[in-house]
Amino acid sequence: MALQHEKLGGHMAAAVTGIDLNTLPDGPTQAKLVDALHANLVLCIRGQNLAPVPFRNAMARFGTPMLRKQLAHTAECAEVNIISSEDRDELGDGKKLVNGASWHTDDSFMRAPCSLTMLYGVTVPSRGGDTQFTNMYAAYDDLPAEIKARIDRLKVIHKYESSRKTNRVAKRPETEMAAMPEATHPLVRTHPETRRKALYLNANRMEQVVGLERAESDELLDALIGHAIQPKFQYRHVWRQGDIVIWDNRCTMHKANADYPEGERRLMHRVIVAGTEPF
Ligand code: OGA
Ligand code: MN
Asked: For the whole model, what pTM was predicted?
């Protein structure tokens, strides 16, 4: 069956069907998938049925899978993490933990954050549990010229547990917290492959703009977040079982929604692939 391509959102996101990733795509097919991802920022590959190792192997065609030790992983493959409705803050208050409930880009507290995240819907609820995305190229392009000039060279400190955080993050052992990296990243980054400029924000991990007083920094970051998450820049993914959604953390933010019916299960397998230091 040939690869079928369908636009999902107006300005971002596409879906492909007609491919079974249990067989690794040939070179030209893989190149088409990568092109579709770069053109659409979020790429959904429909109808998959993959055990953890074949999932990891298919995702390894897009980059180098990384370990994410803060999350649980499958028994079969340490590079396949588990995002589940059963997640609890084990070392904290033991309460239900929704990973990624506020607008963020993955792992921006790292010096070289993951470039792509792949989330595979193993069990999806009957309704709700959508993932929202926002287009950070469009958000940057839409800024007035004087704001662009003001922010083009600014840098921001990102932390695992920022004092500005808008949702709970999993508590980690003290030794791990002490060694948790923080990173200083440009507020406007250039995508290394498309060469386009994008706003680089993370509502949950940004601490402060370098060189600005706290109040001025907070005001600027709040204004930029408010700008970037306007509905006109968003795409909302409604999950179907067997979807793999691949997003580009270098030019999008995303957000989980825990609004599915109580008692229903949502189980996702997740792979991240290595990125470079933002510039
Ligand atoms: C993530 C994430 C969103 C979701 O895995 O990084 O933010 O909808 N997930 O589960
Ligand atoms: Mn995330």
From this structure: 0.96
